[in-house]
Amino acid sequence: MEFEQEIIPKKLYCISTAGIYPYCIDDTDKSTPEEIVIRANLQNEEAEIFKKHYSAISNTNWIVYNYNPNPQKFVFSKTWLCHHSKLHKRIAKGNADCKAKLSNVIKKITKATKKKDKYLKYDMTLARQQFYQYFSDGMSPIEAFRFHENKFLLEDNFMGLANPSLNPTLNQIYYLHECWRDANLGSSINPFDKLKEKVPFYESIGTTVKFHDDHLWAVLLVTPLMKRNHPLSSSKEIIFIDSTASCETSSIITIKLSATKVGALPLAVMIHVSNHPDLFMSNNSSAEKGALAAVWPEAKQLLCHFHVAQAEWCWLFSYKMMEQEKNSTFIKTFSSCTQYRKRYLFCSLN
Q1: How confident is the model at residue 147, as a pLDDT?
Q2: In this structure, which long-range contacts are made by residues 31-36, counting pairs with CB atoms below 8 Å and at least 24 apart in sequence?
Q3: How many angstroms separate the CA atoms of 285 and 61, rounded?
Q4: Residues 271 and 219: beta-carbon distance below 8 Å
Q5: What percent of the chain shows pLDDT beyond 90?
Q6: 218: buried, middle or exposed (CB in 10 Å: 19+, 13-18, 0-12)?
Q7: How many CB atoms lie within 10 A of CB 259?
Q8: Residues in contact with 323: Cβ distance below 8 Å, sequence separation at least 6, in sequence order
Q9: With contact defined as beta carbons under 8 Å apart, do 236 and 186 qualify?
Q10: What is the four-CA torsion angle of 92, 94, 96, 101, rounded to 10 degrees?
Q11: 26 near 14, Cβ under 8 Å?
Q12: How confident is the model over 108-114, as a mean pLDDT?
C-alpha cells in the first residue's frame, strides 16, 4: 500500500493499524518523507476492507481513480484519490486540489517476486528446524503454528511475522509436519519400514512388536489398563466397535469396548489402513440403504432383526391398530416374544 501524501502522522497510523493488522509493518526501504509504504499480509477480499479501516483512522473519504479488475502482474491493484481532489469536480466547490493518493497492490507470489522481494523469500532452513523440534515435542501443526506466532508477538517482532521464511503459513506448516512424520514415523501408506527400524528400541523398553508383511496392515495397541478389562465377564459377551476416519492421515482408528455397569471400558485400539467394507447391517430406511449402495455397490446389506421387530411393534400399537386389532391373536403371539423395558425393545429371536 502506498500513500503519496501523509494524511495523518506516520507513527499514529502504524500504531492504529497494528491493532487491526498485527502483521502490518513499515517498508523502510521504499518509504520516503512524502510517501508511506506499508506491507501487510492481505487476501484479495480484504483489500477494500483495509481502505475502509484507513478511512476511519484518518477521517478521510476516497474516490476510485484507477482499477483493473483483471490485472496481469498483480492479484489486486486499485488506486483512490482524496474526495477533495480535482477528480470529477467541474466547479470550485469541494475542490481543494488535494494531492493525497492511496494505492493498494497485492503481489502475485512467483519465482521473480520471491527472488526480488525480501519479504517473500522462502529460505525456510531455520523455520524447518524449529518446527521439527515442535513436532518432536508433541505439538500438532495448529499448536506449533500458534506457539511460533505468539513468540513473535511477545517480542513485538512484526518484521518476523511478515516474513514467510521465518513465520510459515499454515499450509506450509502442514507440509513440514508431513515431511517430519514420514522421516520419523514412516509413511501412512506403509509404516512397516520405519517400524522395522524401531524394533530394537521397542524391545529395549519391554514392548513386543509383531507384524506380518501384506498389502493391508493393522497395528493393535493394548495397554496394561486394557489388559485388566479382558478377564471381565462383560468382555466375553458383546464387544462394541467404533471406528473413525477423521484423522490427519488416511488411516482409520477403531476402538473396541465392553459394556459394564460403570460404562464402556476400552479393550484395544486398532490403527489400520482404510479399506472398503464388505457388510452393512441397518434398518429398512430406503434413503440409508440407497446411499450405502451408491458408495459401496459391492457390499452386502443385511436387515437388522431388532429394527424389524421395533417397526412391527410400533405399527401394531398405533392408534388405528389398537382399535381394530386390540384383542387379536396376532398381537398376543407377538407380545409373548417381545418385552418392552425402559423404552428399549428386546426381541427374542429363538
Answers
A1: 92
A2: 33/6, 34/4, 34/5, 34/6, 35/2, 35/3, 35/4, 35/5, 36/2, 36/3, 36/6, 36/10
A3: 61
A4: yes
A5: 3
A6: middle
A7: 14
A8: none
A9: no
A10: -130
A11: yes
A12: 77
Beta-ladder partners of 67: 78
Taking residues 199-226, report their average pLDDT.
75
The answer to whether residue 344 scores a pLDDT higher than 50 is no
* Chain position carrying cell 412391527: 312
Strand 300-303 relative to strand 279-282, pairing:
parallel
Asked whether the beta carbons of 252 and 243 are under 8 A apart, the reply is: yes
- Joined grid coordinates for residue 15: 500504531
SS (H, E, C) the chain: CEECCCCCCHHHHHHHHHHHCCCCEECCCCCECCEEEEECCCCHHHHHHHHHHHHHHHCCCEEEEEECCCCCCEEEEEEEEECCCCCCCCCCCCCCCCCCEEEEEEECCCHHHHHHCCCCCCCCHHHHHHHHHHHHCCCCHHHHHHHHHHHHHHCCCHHHHCCCCCCCCHHHHHHHHHHHHHHHCCCCCCCHHHHHHCHHHHHHCCCCCCCCCCCCCEEEECCHHHHHHCCCHHHHCCEEEEEECCCCCCEEEEEEEEEECCEEEEEEEEEEECCCCCEEEECCCHHHHHHHHHHCCCCEEEECHHHHHHHHHHHHCCHHHHHHCCCCHHHHHHHHCEEEECCEEEECCC
Residues contacting residue 197 through CB under 8 Å, at least 6 positions apart: none
- Grid coordinates belonging to 6: 501523509
Which cell is 236 given?
A: 466375553
d(CA 9, CA 258): 69
Q: Which residues contact 123 (CB under 8 A, 6 or more apart)?
A: 165
| Separation in Å, CA 38 to CA 18, 53, 76, 198 | 11, 14, 15, 51
Q: Which residue has the higher pLDDT, 19 or 5?
A: 19
